[in-house]
Automatic annotation (TrEMBL):
One Pfam short name: TsaD
Transmembrane stretches, start-end: none
Keyword vocabulary terms for this entry: Acyltransferase, Cytoplasm, Iron, Metal-binding, Transferase, tRNA processing
PANTHER family, alphabetized: TRNA N6-ADENOSINE THREONYLCARBAMOYLTRANSFERASE (PTHR11735), TRNA N6-ADENOSINE THREONYLCARBAMOYLTRANSFERASE, MITOCHONDRIAL (PTHR11735:SF6)
Entry's Gene Ontology BP terms: tRNA threonylcarbamoyladenosine modification
Top enzyme category: transferase
Protein name: tRNA N6-adenosine threonylcarbamoyltransferase
Length: 336
């Protein structure tokens, strides 16, 4: 069973081939860089780039993998959540190709793809597990019991952690995307005794909040001139605050649920300091940490192809409908 995966939820054009018997066959990604000058993703520009890049990327993928379109058994595409125009580009092409080839097309939940991405690796978690999904648009803890069975234990009340990174990087003049920029600057940062707030850590529960942290950084940045060293010092303080908040919540969730496996997924999951801290936290509890390679932390076609393959193997069929869901709560997703 060979599935083509298409991911176009935001500004990354991702495609991949996943075989149910042999695993991941090939994957390719085009990351748009034109948005950097705007300090964030411009939806219309993202859609136009998907239109230009998606079909040539698929052609190259099939050629390199020595696969023809008639070898495909199904096409999986991101149906939401995400930018409406970007989602429609992927959905339209996926549906058209599937119709022409007389094969199923499955709309996949973007966050389900992220939650399952660590299972693409050799060191893969079995169900059930606790998952921290942390990215530019989402920060949440989920109890992952089986395919399509997800319970949200806590999520951000305002900004996602990745959004806090992006906006703080703009404040510090470090560019976009903010996560890698903050992480790189933090390596040169000094401990200046600045302790930025850790929102909601003084309260029980598994909810997150990062808007106050962003405001605190803005005020700190105005206390003295922002030279290169000051930027690095503040980047270090910000990263420490976000990592500390995420790690404490994960530890709390592991204790409350009794899970022995923690998965970290999403773009912020590539942050090395976060991985190091969570490794220490889970080891202290006798649990195990799982995460995908950096290329599969950010948006990618492999996770969509894999999720589609699992759902197809579990008996899900193409309902024949066409549409995308820019807003699609994970809690509304059902098992196949």
């Amino acid at each position: 069973m060979l599935v083509l995966g298409i991911e176009t939820s935001c500004d990354d054009t991702g495609v991949a081939l996943y075989d149910h018997d042999t695993g991941l066959r090939a994957h390719a990604l085009f990351s748009q860089i034109s948005h950097a000058i705007y300090g964030g993703v411009v939806p219309e520009l993202a859609s136009r780039d998907h239109i230009q890049k998606l079909l040539p990327l698929i052609d190259t993928l099939l050629h390199d993998a020595q696969v023809t379109p008639t070898d495909l058994d199904a096409i999986a595409y991101t149906a939401g959540p995400g930018l409406a125009g970007a989602l429609l580009v992927g959905a339209t092409l996926a549906r058209a190709l599937a119709f022409a080839l007389a094969i199923p097309a499955l709309g996949i939940h973007h966050l389900e793809g992220h939650l399952l991405a660590p299972r693409l690796e050799t060191h893969a978690p079995d169900f059930p597990f606790l998952a921290l999904l942390v990215s530019g648009g989402h920060t949440l803890l989920a109890d992952v019991r089986a395919l399509g069975r997800y319970e949200i234990l806590g999520e951000s009340r305002d900004d996602a952690a990745g959004e806090a990174f992006d906006k703080s990087a703009q404040v510090l003049g470090l560019g976009y995307p903010g996560g890698p920029a903050i992480s790189a600057a933090a390596t040169e940062g000094r401990d200046i005794g600045l302790r930025l707030p850790r929102p909601l850590l003084d309260r029980p529960g598994l909810e997150f909040s990062f808007s106050g942290l962003k405001t605190a950084l803005l005020l700190a940045s105005q206390e003295q001139p922002l030279d290169d060293q000051r930027r690095c010092d503040l980047a270090r303080a910000l990263q420490e605050a976000i990592v500390d908040t995420l790690a404490v919540k994960c530890r709390r969730a592991l204790i409350e649920t009794g899970h022995e496996r923690l998965v970290i997924a999403g773009g912020v999951g590539a942050n090395q300091k976060l991985r190091e801290r969570l490794t220490d936290e889970v080891r202290a509890l006798g649990a195990t940490l799982y995460y995908p390679r950096p290329a599969f932390c950010t948006d990618n076609g492999a996770m969509i192809a894999y999720a589609g393959c699992l759902r197809l193997a579990a008996g899900q069929t193409d309902d024949g409908g066409f549409g995308v869901r820019p807003r699609w709560p994970l809690s509304e997703l059902s098992p196949p």
